[in-house]
Amino acid sequence: MEPRVEAGIDYTIARRRMVLEQLRARGITERSILEAFMRVPRHAFIDQAVGSKAYADCSFPIGYAQTISQPYTIAFMIQALSVRAADRVLEIGTGSGYQTAILSLLAKEVFSIERLPPLFERAEAALTGLRTGKIRLKMGDGSNGWRMHAPFDRIIVSAAMKEEPSGLLEQLGEEGTLVVPIADRGERLWLFRRTSGRIVKELLAKCAFVPLKKGEA
Ligand code: SAH
Fold first, then answer.
1. What DSSP state is assigned to residue 211?
2. What DSSP string runs through 146-198?
3. Which of 55, 74, 116, 135 has most ligand 1 atoms within 8 Å of CB, for mutation?
4. What tens digit of pLDDT does each residue of 81-135 get?
5. What's the 209 CA to ligand 1 centre distance in angstroms?
6. C-alpha 111 to ligand 1 mean position (Å)
7. Which contiguous run of DSSP H or E holds residue 209?
8. What values do phi and psi take at 3, rounded to 5?
9. What's the pLDDT tens digit per position in 53-73?
10. Annotation marks residue 69 as catalytic
């Protein structure tokens, strides 16, 4: 996916440490997820000056008051989502595009929406040139999903909603799952599952995400 050494830095060492120490040691056991994190060059989605610190155990500013999520947070959400190779996945909040790249290696196709034009353009540029899976990007407000391509097998939201994602749940297929941070009383990460026509909701963890903004930027 990339040259082994860039500007004198061997990023594969930093990436392997990230996978072992931040992900596997904390309960990310799904092999395909660990392999995807091993393949995607996280530094390609962060300001070049950050160098191999791109693989540190934290989120980073990506401009416009937004952040690229901590690797563990992304892995935890994706493991809870349980993406299968035949799945069509909708992602709300492309941000840097890093999570989009990871998802694309696990799923059949990823549809991702970003509201802020400069981040949309940067993510598009970062993803072009990498050998990822199939990805379709769209600029705009993703809070109501992407009706034209619905239903989706999996939906993942990377910014905190204020209420339950009723519009997105309408675009979730049968036996589909949706992972979303909701900030109502405190901020928590929830898993919604559509099963036998019903929606079942499960609390996953406490969390902290940037807020989902409605309307055009
Ligand atoms: N997983 C991403 C997270 C980026 S932060 C990463 O690791 O890079 C969340 C992103 O959601 C921001 O880029 C923000 O602009 C975007 N966002 C917020 N509200 C949105 C909305 N209504 N529709 C689409 N994107 C939105």
1. B
2. -GGG--EEEEEE-SBBSS--HHHHTTEEEEEEEEEEEEESEEEEEEEEEETTE
3. 116
4. 999 999 999 999 999 999 999 999 999 999 999 999 999 999 999 999 899 999 9
5. 9
6. 13
7. none
8. -65, 145
9. 999 999 999 999 999 999 999
10. yes
Quick one: tokens of 17? 């440490």
CA distance 168 to 181: 13
Q: In this structure, how many other beta carbons lie within 10 angstroms of the beta carbon of residue 128?
A: 10
**In sequence order, what E strands does the chain have?**
5-6, 9-10, 60-63, 66-68, 88-92, 109-114, 134-139, 152-157, 172-184, 186-195, 198-206
Closest-lying ligand 1 atom to the alpha carbon of residue 93:
11
Q: Which of 32, 52, 59, 69 is catalytic?
A: 69
